[in-house]
Amino acid sequence: MHILIATIIKDMKILLxxxxxxxxxxxxxxxxxxVITSVQNSTFELVNNNKISLVIYNNDKxxxxxxxxxxxxxIGLFKLQVSESVVTENHPSSRMYTKDALVALVIPQGFTxxxxxxxxxxxxxxxKDPDSINEKSSAPVELPDSLKMYYNPVMQASFRxxxxxxxHSAVQVxxxxxxxxxxxxxxxxxxxxxxxxxxxxxxxxxxSEIPVSSSxxxxxxxxxxxxxxxxxxxxxxxxxxSLGGVMVREKNSGSFIRLKTLPASYMNALFSKQFxxxxxxxxxxxxxxxxxxxxxxxxxxxxxxxxxDIWGLLTVTIVCGYCAVSYAICVGVFANTPEQSNGFGAxxxxxxxxxxxxxxxxxAMPANLQKFLxxxxxxxxxxAYYGLFLEGGKLKDIWMNILSLLGITALIQLFTLYGLxxxxxx
Amino acid sequence: MSSHxxxxxxxxxxxxxxxxxxxxNFNLEIRAGERFGLFGPNGAGKTTLMNxxxxxxxxxxxxxxxxxxxxxxxxxxINNIFGFVPQDFSFYTELSPRxxxxxxxAWYGLSVRQIREKTEELLEILGLTTVGNxxxxxxxxxxxxxxxxxxxxxxEPKVLFLDEPTVGVDVQSRHAIIHxxxxxxxxxxxxxxTSHQLEEAAELCNKIALIDDGKIIAHDSxxxxxxxxxxxxxxxxxxxxxxxxFRD
Lengths: 426, 248
What we know:
The complex is a heterodimer of chains A (426) and B (248).
Chain A: H1 2-17, H2 19-48, E1 52-58, H3 63-75, E2 78-83, H4 90-97, E3 103-107, H5 111-126, E4 148-151, H6 157-188, H7 194-202, H8 223-237, H9 240-252, H10 254-260, H11 267-295, H12 310-334, H13 338-355, H14 367-370, H15 377-389, H16 399-422
Parallel strand pairs in A: 1-2, 1-3
Antiparallel strand pairs in A: 3-4
Helix pairs in contact in A: 1-11, 2-8, 2-11, 3-6, 5-6, 6-7, 8-11, 8-15, 9-12, 9-13, 11-12, 12-13, 12-15, 12-16, 15-16
Chain B: E1 4-13, E2 23-31, E3 35-39, H1 46-53, E4 61-66, E5 69-70, H2 75-81, E6 82-85, H3 97-107, H4 112-125, H5 141-153, E7 159-163, H6 171-186, E8 190-194, H7 198-204, E9 207-212, E10 215-220, H8 222-229, H9 234-242
Helix pairs in contact in B: 3-4, 5-6
């Protein structure tokens, strides 16, 4: 025990005197979490609170195009600018490149006329004898020129699809209303009342969005709840840069040669490193969570709500930290130079983070990559943290994730032992 | 207790992945209490032999006995009775001499009290007391060599292996180190030493072996070897036995 304590004291002193190393292990991850949460938060707010700037060029200037513009405005997703200028092909793009708008919509000339024509045709066919409904219309409807949506290429596909969906829904409402109006007129031989028309246009069935959590709480998840746990795991695993390098340097140094001639096992040195760096990962997580909880509101970020099950949080943090430390030691044992350790360590953690769903949610990953999710310890750690932070779960709800993480850790340790024996280090 | 510090019999050794056998049927005896110098040109096998005798390298055949104990069979016991001062600085430069000695003392199995007493004694003898709390990366080469030596002897080993312990140091540090080693030898420690400093070897060693190409080519007291080969100094003897061609 005396040997282990002396080794822990030695490792702690070396660690505390390495100011650059400490900066890398604490300040950089904190900065990373703050920056990524800020960026993700602005994206989150863009979707939920901010409005996407949309410029509309109305070449139709008739009743239905005006109604369409009104309908788009009522969706609530867009900050509208209706341009009265004459549209040329270059006009929308030049307007977008001066960053006036992320999206531009051009309503073609004859939009109202074409919609009404189509509605009339559908109404006429609907009122015909059912047996003759499949017959071709005597006067086929001329297809209208399409609405053109221009978008800035910086817009991610997911945003584009949201905008596209919203515009389609607005057009469908206009088309639906026109058809119902024509049917009403055909059946009742008079114009549709205004209140019925408004009901068709704006009286859509409401959908309420309610987050569901294991604890029964209905806290709306925010960018902090999503990002802070994910990037804390990344920071913990990124300790490979520091610890892997320390392992290689010590292995290649004269002090290691001397340790091999001393009457104590090298396992003492390994246990000491595991203990000291586990403490480092634990402190990293504690500092990041504390900053998320206490400091984020002061810099305009949403507060990180800590899980109700603190024991669960402690358990996941310790198991995740132990896995990160085991991985770093394994890389350090197999690498021959600090460059190898740093290069392989950093890139492998990026790959494992991507596979683990830290960068893109795992459900959005390609099916063939989803098969490899389970090999990434970061995936199990993320699932466990999300179980606590987002779903309000308790330790009993995430034990499978913890077991999987421990299983991967055991495999890494076995591989490390093999490396130590193969390289004649123990 | 064995009258021999080291007995090597029929030793075989080959570096993995390299062609040729480094040692074949290699034999050597070093008596307890000797100040034994192992010399040879670069690549002759001095450091390899040192690493085999300290158990850093494993040998497939033959036997190496340290004070009567086969080192392969009793590695833990063997590690308690010898000390090793490697050519490379083998300590943590982020720590002070006192902190290094506290760490290595624990690994030697010394108690906290023993570590404290031995640390102060060695720092005093080697002239490091006033800098005992300064981190080593601010030290000169000579001071680092003295710390390297202090770590190797703090458990009072019966056999002390020294691989070029004075390389790159000034006259004062060399004098302090050689003086201390002679004192240790007088107290009963067998010294097994390698160096390229032939004058220093002549001053320190009472028995020498010249090794070349994995073989012992001369082994006796320096006086006997000089007289047999008709040389006045060790350099002439060395060049006669190992030749003048470069070896690296």
